[in-house]
Design a protein that fits this description.
Radius of gyration: 30 Å
Number of helices: 18
Distance between the termini: 84 Å
Strand content: 25-35%
Structural class: alpha/beta
Helix content: 25-40%
Length: about 625
């Protein structure tokens, strides 16, 4: 008898494992009823346990907004702040199942402040349920969420016209909202849009079609979710697997581990390792604790190969006859998710598949109007804005356009200092210039140029407020190096603005570009074997870190000339502080533009030290 029960349990688990899983999100503007709808869906489909129901009844009395009734929204509004305010802040994931499918639903916040959380939920979803309050119609946030859903690769949309009971189940209101949305959705690359009039609170058209909407002949929400086929229709199935780990427990085994992003694999299949391009064949496929004869998309596997190939985390294993591309410059769509505006020229970390590289946004082509989709000229991107940009990475990455492969086409941007996620993007294509430009091999290199000058090249980067004395110190250092017969060049902020950077002003974007250009020039001079002294205010820590990243270990020395603002104003040899205080100079560092103090400079010079003393400190640490 016990063995029969075990067999039944095993059979049940196997049947459950064979079910399809549909991942979908609910999104839209605030107070459109997203949490209530999911709660109703769980309640009506009997996916709430008895203890959950008891807890829900108790919570409804304390936090509920429905009087004596159960407040179903509390099933997914889990944070204390959400319950007290009656809003969704974080993404709430819920799992439920029917006889046909398993479901993972993400209830995403409607407030504009938490748009980044909505994008997080959309990034792994197959379908979006976009809610619209029948009394209000399409709002700005509704349109923004719809654009983000399309941007994240969601191609199946349910337009849930909610609270239809509050407008008397009026067919004309429903039809007008549907027509408005379909007009808005033109050009969004959706495969299918299903509009459904419903009431999340009362349950109309949620699980079953409602007799109160006799004019509606379509499916209920649950019926549509049960039947919709969201499988990829790209027509491509070539094998792709980003490597997560190289498993080497002993000298006799080397396994290449990862999750299959696309396609299928069998022993004997020909593979190409990218970006190196090395070719090999599959020796065996390991899933769990044993070998298998076949693996497909979504499965985590370990491959053993016929040849000993050099590969590491972040490389991509692909079908030899149809490999993806590799490039270091792209056009991409970008959702900016940080309070601080995005400025071209600044360096960020790009997390792409299993690899991290440094990336620079080289140009903003345009931003998109949230309402109309119009392309608007801009120099920056603000919080929750979507734009099309050009990117340049520090090393080539293996990619495919996002419309073809969401894993190899998607990325996030991370601030290098705070490690905050500041953007999410989708690669459109590689820029042609990336295919036309290659590194030219040179026979005379930096080592040769340094040897003939009998010195070790480096960059000494002086930073501090205007009037801190950094230029005076840099000048003394160069004179002393010159007397020693060293080959040097001093790049001063004011002097460079007379030529190379004369087209730049003093906005934050211009300041970033100012430092980017001079850092690249300094790198070329170090490559020529010179000792380069750079004297720039360079007020932003991220820009100084960008400059440091261009040089090899030991080639960059940051010198912070720490003179107080009061002392700099007292000196004010150029009269700039006086003009800034009077409002005649805008964006002046220390007055109405910030100076970010260096965190770990190699040399910290107190501003009251004489230039001669400071120069001695610096020279004593130089290894030439």
């Amino acid at each position: 008898m016990a063995s029969e029960r075990v067999k039944d349990i095993v059979a049940s688990l196997e049947a459950e494992s064979r079910k399809e899983t549909l991942r979908f999100i609910t999104c839209g503007s605030v107070d459109d009823g997203k949490s209530t709808l999911i709660g109703r869906l769980l309640f009506e489909s009997k996916n709430i346990f008895d203890d959950q129901l008891t807890s829900l009844e108790s919570d409804s009395r304390h936090y509920g907004t429905q009087g004596e009734k159960i407040d179903l929204a509390l099933l997914v509004d889990g944070l204390q702040a959400e319950r007290e305010q009656g809003i969704t802040i974080d993404v709430a994931y819920r799992f439920f199942a029917t006889d046909r499918r398993r479901y993972i639903v993400a209830d995403t916040p409607g407030h504009e402040q938490y748009t980044r959380n909505m994008a997080t939920g959309a990034s792994t979803a197959d379908l979006a349920v976009i809610l619209v309050d029948a009394r209000k119609g399409l709002l700005v946030q509704t349109r923004r969420h719809s654009r983000i859903a399309a941007m994240m690769g969601i191609r199946y949309i349910v337009l849930a016209v909610n609270k239809i009971d509050l407008v008397g189940f009026d067919e004309k209101i429903f039809s007008a909202i549907e027509a408005d949305f379909r007009k808005f959705a033109e050009g969004q690359a959706y495969f299918a849009i299903q509009a459904i009039p419903l009431s999340g609170l009362e349950g109309d058209n949620v699980l079953f079609t409602s007799p109160r909407t006799p004019w509606y002949s379509g499916p209920s929400l649950m019926e549509y979710l049960e039947l919709v086929d969201v499988r990829a229709v790209s027509g491509r199935s070539a094998f792709r697997m980003p490597l997560q780990w190289i498993n080497r427990p002993n000298l006799d085994f080397r396994g290449y581990c990862g999750r299959i992003a696309e396609g299928e694999i069998r022993p004997g299949d020909a593979l190409r390792i990218l970006p190196s391009g090395v070719q090999t064949r599959v020796k065996s496929i390991i899933r769990g604790f044993g070998e298998v004869a076949y693996a497909c998309q979504g499965q985590s596997v370990t491959l053993t190969l016929m040849d000993e190939v050099d590969a590491s985390r972040g490389d991509v294993v692909a079908a030899a006859e149809d490999p993806p591309q590799s490039a270091d410059q792209f056009e991409a769509r970008l959702l900016w998710m940080a309070e601080q505006v995005m400025t071209p020229g600044r360096h960020y970390l790009m997390k792409h598949a299993c690899r991290e590289v440094t990336v620079t946004i080289t140009k903003i082509k345009y931003r998109e109007d949230a309402n109309t989709g119009a392309h608007l000229a801009t120099e920056t991107l603000g919080l929750n804005e979507i734009g099309t940009v050009n990117l340049s990475t520090s090393a080539p990455i293996v990619f495919e356009p996002y419309r073809v492969n969401r894993l190899l086409g998607g990325f996030i941007l991370i601030d290098k200092l705070s490690f905050e996620t500041v953007g999410a993007g989708m690669i459109n294509f590689a820029l042609r210039r990336a295919q036309n430009i290659h590194w030219q091999a040179l026979e005379v290199n930096k080592a040769a140029r340094s040897a003939i000058k009998h010195q070790k090249p480096c960059c000494i980067w002086f930073t501090g407020l205007s009037g801190s004395g950094k230029s005076a110190i840099a000048n003394v250092v160069e004179k002393k190096l010159y007397v020693e017969g060293r080959h040097t060049c001093l790049l001063d902020g004011d002097n460079v603005r007379h030529g190379l950077n004369r087209d730049l002003g003093f906005t934050e974007a211009d300041r970033v570009e100012n430092i980017r250009r001079i850092a690249e020039v300094a790198r070329l001079m170090v490559d020529a074997g010179l000792i380069v002294l750079v004297s720039f205010i360079s007020p932003f820590q991220s820009d100084r870190e960008m400059a440091r990243s261009l040089f090899a270990e030991g080639e960059f020395m940051e010198v912070f000339v720490d003179t107080s603002l009061a002392e700099c104003e007292r000196r004010d040899v150029k009269g700039l502080y006086a003009k800034a205080r009077q409002g005649e100079l805008k964006n002046f560092t220390g007055i109405d533009s910030p100076y970010e103090v260096p965190l770990t400079p190699e040399i910290h010079v107190q501003g009251m030290v004489s230039p001669e003393e400071a120069a001695g400190m610096i020279l004593s640490l130089l290894t030439l």
